[in-house]
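Reviewer 2 asked us to include a model.

Predict the structure of this chain.
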Amino acid sequence: MTKRTLLFFVTGLCVCIMVYGILSSTLLARIMHMPCRIVNDVQQQLQMVRNITPEPLLSDQGVNRSQRSDGVDLVGTSEKVLSNRTGIRPSDADTVFNSREEMPCVSDLREELLCALKKNVPFSTITRKQASRDVRNVVLPEESLEKLAHFNSCAVVSSSHALRLHTYGQEIDSHDIVLRFNCAPTDQFEQFVGSRTDIRMINTLVPLRHCQEEFWSRNSTMFKHGILVVGNMDGINFGPRGSLDIRPHIRQAFDNLVKYSRTFPKRAKPFIQRPRFGQDIMAELARFCVTTGLCDRPRLRPSSGMLGIVMMLHLCDWVRVYELVPSNKDDSKLMYYFDEKTMWTAHDMHSYSQERVYVRTLSLTPEKGIEHTGVVLLKGFSQTQCD
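Predicted model (structure tokens):
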């Protein structure tokens, strides 16, 4: 009886040790692979999102990647596009190909996010044909912007006061295309932000509340050269039978665009982003926050900066964003590099915090690099391999 009891005890002890070993190794593996496991769970959810077909648009959304900026004549709109001068920089190549700190699953997550953004937020601009029976269609170009040209390297320059703490001017100007926002000037700030402006994206408060003098001046260079793009959250839509449906709070802004085209007939006609472009970006930000848990669901509309970044991801192979995701250089509360008075307030009008988390996740630039420089390198959709 004693021997049998001892045998049962030893056998049970061996079984317990084996089970403990299996559980321990499994738990250790789970702990070691927790980041990738979480990322893979997020990837699966994003894959499900990508498989959901978005609402059909009323216009073609293809990007003509074969049509480059070299010598392109933007027919019917008198836009001028500069020649393609630069490719991806050696420093960018180091970031893209030699980042050993990044786990493969993080790279996969970035690709999933870019593919979801590409599918769910296509880009185009409203053409004259789409508003063929609207008398106001005189303001619209004949072709959509993404069909006229595609670029290699692009700079998206924020209006952040932190740009005063860097000297990025020459670097910014070396890109194929430079995008600026609203009333951001270059005169007297060239060493910080560069001197070129090839695309200027404005919101509907220009010129209603901001830079009226520059907008209507024949001598001001702020709007005289380059391409003008109007951000469109949800205010300008397609109406029935080839008309435009413009919401009441946007009508005065649209009337100003018509007046602008008639006042300056030799200037490039303004491009207006397609209906619901801003709303689709807001929905994609919400999906990102809910799926990853990295941020709260946005309840505010996306900023002009976010609309500009997504637009340039469609138009460019490589996009460098300057101080939209802030560095740690500026400890002031000042908003703009050209204004030493306006301060940040506690009441944001846009989803800045969610946008910064999102762009950081899409970035090829290591976190430490962003903190030091405030510069983010992004792959354009043309460089992203999607199913």
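The chain is about 40% helix and 10% strand. Residues 17-35, 52-87 have pLDDT under 50 and may be disordered. We have added this to the supplementary material.
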